[in-house]
Write a structure and sequence with these properties.
GO molecular function: kinase activity
Largest sheet: 5 strands, antiparallel
CATH class: Alpha Beta
InterPro entries: Kinase-like_dom_sf
Structural class: alpha+beta
Order of helices and strands: EEEEEHEEH
Keywords: Kinase, Transferase
Number of strands: 7
Protein name: Serine/threonine-protein kinase
Number of helices: 2
Organism: Peribacillus simplex
Strand content: 25-35%
Number of domains: 1
Helix content: 10-25%
CATH superfamily: Phosphorylase Kinase, domain 1
Length: about 100
C-alpha cells in the first residue's frame, strides 16, 4: 500500500511546493501552508510544510466538527491532516466567487 507520509512539501513564495510525491495520489489543491492529495474516494490528506500548521488547523477542524459545512476530521499527525473528501470548490474559491460563511 502506498504511504502518503512519503510525500514532501516545502514552503514556497505564495503556495507550497511539492518536492516529492512517490505515490499515485493526485494533487487536488495547494495553498500557503500545505498541499492536499486525494487518497480514496471519500478521504484526502493535507501535507503541511511545517508540523505546527497541521496542529493548528487540526485544532480548528476539531472545534468546528459540529458544523455541517466542515469536512469530517479523521486524523491529525505530525505534518498531516486526514479529512473527508468533498467534491466542489475550495472554501477560498467559494468566498472569492461571492459566497459567504457565517462568522459564528
Amino acid at each position: 500500500m502506498e504511504d502518503f507520509k512519503s510525500i514532501c512539501v516545502t514552503e514556497g513564495i505564495k503556495k507550497v511546493d511539492v518536492i516529492k510525491n512517490p505515490t499515485s495520489f493526485p494533487l487536488i489543491g495547494k495553498g500557503a501552508q500545505g498541499a492536499v492529495f486525494k487518497i480514496s474516494s471519500d478521504k484526502c490528506v493535507k501535507i503541511c510544510a511545517k508540523p505546527e500548521f497541521a496542529a493548528k488547523e487540526g485544532n480548528v477542524l476539531k472545534i468546528a466538527q459540529e458544523s455541517p459545512a466542515i469536512p469530517r476530521l479523521y486524523e491529525v499527525g505530525h505534518n498531516y491532516i486526514i479529512m473527508e473528501y468533498l467534491e466542489g470548490p475550495t472554501l477560498f474559491q467559494y468566498l472569492e466567487s461571492g459566497g459567504s460563511y457565517p462568522k459564528n
